[in-house]
Amino acid sequence: MDVVDSQRCLIVGPSTDVARQMIGYKRLSLTDIKVDIGRGAKAKSVSAAWTAADVEGKWASSAWGKTLAARKAKAEAGDFERFTDMVSHKKAMKATRKALKK
Rounded to whole angstroms, how far apart are CA atoms 73 and 86? Predict the structure, then answer.
């Protein structure tokens, strides 16, 4: 949102999850997703620009977002989901081995 000095910047999130705060660049990971706002913008205008730019949708369609979503789904999976994943994986590996034998 705003540059403080060569090592820190001012950030604010679109929701109440991330309050306005200074954070070091070493703790940030930059992406290609960009929201056009002015320096020192208020939280309300940041939230409006965030929704207008469809940042959540762009993040969900990115490879990084898909990886994190898959990790979260795997961590939240129950016994039955893990079992069905194991069975489908075994079935796919059996088909692969059969195709490689030919």
Answer: 15
